[in-house]
Each structure stands twice: as structure tokens, then as C-alpha cells.
Amino acid sequence: MSNDSQIKVSIMKKTKTYMDKLLNDKEFHERFDKEYQNLCVVEKIAEIRHKEKLTQDDPVNRRRNNKSL
Hints:
Strand content: under 5%
Number of strands: 0
Structural class: mainly alpha
Order of helices and strands: HHH
Helix content: 55-70%
Largest sheet: none
Distance between the termini: 77 Å
């Protein structure tokens, strides 16, 4: 294989962000992961509710939330 036909791969060095620096702290990282998991659950619930066309004002939800019909 000639040098001309070889693919050259350059590796870019990742720039450290402020978030990268924060995640180096173990306590912050653990708390961040927990909140991220909560966010994922909330997004899934929102996706299902949207798919099923459910809102907070639906009668079933009103009963569960003690709202008057």
C-alpha cells in the first residue's frame, strides 16, 4: 500500500470545559448522575403522556390530584 492511499487520522485533543472540571469532584459527579437519572425518568413519563395524549386536566388525573371535576 502506498503512502498516498493510506488514510491519515488526526486525533483532536478535547478541550476541557467547566463541566468537565466539576465532574472531577466525586460528590458533584454522584449528585449530577442522580439528577440526570431523574431527568431521564421525567422525560420518559412526558413522552408516554404525550403519546397517549394525557394532560393534567384529564378527569382521571383530576381525581388522583384531588382536583374538582
